[in-house]
Amino acid sequence: MSNGSPSDCVQINSIGLTKMLVNFAQISRSCARTLLLVLNGCCILLALCTLIFAVVDTKIVKQYGEERASGTFVGDVIISVACLLLISVSALGSIGAVRGNIKILYIYIGLLMILVMVEMLIAIYVSVERYNLEFRVSDWLREDFFRNSTDEDVIHLKLWDDLQMTYECCGLNGPEDYAAIQYHIRLSCCPRAYRARTSYAQQQLYRTCIETATYYTEGCEDEIRNILRSDADWLVGVAVTCFWFEAAGMLLAMWVANNARDAVQVFKGAPRF
Question: pTM of this prediction?
C-alpha cells in the first residue's frame, strides 16, 4: 500500500479543521440564540408587569383629581404604549433568533435602538410628572383638610374616610390634627369600628379604639407621598433594567446576525467532493 502524498494530508487536515470551526460556530450560535430568547422573554415579562401597573395606576391617580394628575395619567398611557411596543419588538427578535433570519435580526436591532432612546425620554417625563404630582397632592391635602367643614359636608368627609381606610392613616400628619381643627377623630381612623355592620357595634368599637389609642398613628400626607415616591422609584428601576436587557439583546442579536452571515460565507468557500 502506498502512503498518501503530503498534499493530500494537508488537504484532509484543513477539511477537518474547517469542520471543527463550523461545529464550534454552530454551538456558539445556538447558545447565543437561546440567550437572546431568554432576554426577550424577560423583556416581555417585564413589559407585561409594567403594563398592568400602568393600567391600575390610571385608576388610582384619578382620586387625586384630573387637574392634579393629568400629567401622570398621560405618562401612564405613554408607558402602556411603550410596553406594547417592547412586547412587539421582543417578539420580532425572538422570531429572528429562532429562524436565524439576518434581515429580521437587523430590523430588530434598529427598532430596539429607537425604543431605547424613546424609553429614556419617557423615563425622564414620567419622573418629572411623578415628582410634581407628589407636591401637588401634598398641597391639595393640606388645603382640603384644614378648610372649614361641617358634619354636613358629606363629600369632604367621604373623601377623607376613603383616604384613611385605603392608606391606613389618620389626619394629615397624624390623629392630633383633628384636635387642631377642634374635631373628633374620624371613625375611619379605627378600622375595626369603621367596618362594623351595626351602629351599636361601631359605637362600642370606636369608644374602645379611642380609649386604647389603637387608631392609625401615621398621617395621610406622609403615607401617600411615600407611595408616590416608591412608585416613581419602581418605574425608574424598571427603565434601567429594560435598558440593560435591551442593550444585551442588541449585542447578542448583532453577534448572531454577523455569525450567521459568516457561516454562509464559510459554507460557500468550503471545498466539496
Answer: 0.73
Check the CA dihedral 226-232-235-240 and report its sign: negative
Residue whose C-alpha is closest to residue 222's, from 127, 142, 129, 132: 142
Specify the pLDDT at position 220.
Answer: 92
CA 1 vs CA 4, 187, 233: distances in Å: 9, 106, 79
Per-residue pLDDT at 68:
76
pLDDT of res. 24: 58
Q: Burial code of 73-89, b = ≥16 C-beta within 10 A, e = fewer?
A: bebbebbbebbebbbeb
| Distance from C-alpha of 60 to C-alpha of 167, rounded to nearest angstrom | 12
Can you list the residues of the chain whose pLDDT is less than 50? 1-2, 4, 8-22, 266-273
pLDDT in tens, 153-204: 678 888 899 999 989 999 999 999 988 888 889 999 999 999 998 999 999 9
Residue 198 phi/psi, 5-degree rounding, is -115, 155
Sign of the alpha-carbon dihedral angle for 76, 80, 86, 89: negative
199 CA to centre of own chain: 44
- In order of 106, 205, 256, the CA distances from 261 in angstroms are 12, 76, 9
Residue 254's nearest CA partner among 39, 43, 42, 86 is: 39
How many CB atoms lie under 10 A from the CB of residue 112? 22
Q: Output the CA angle 107-112-115, nearest 5 degrees.
A: 130
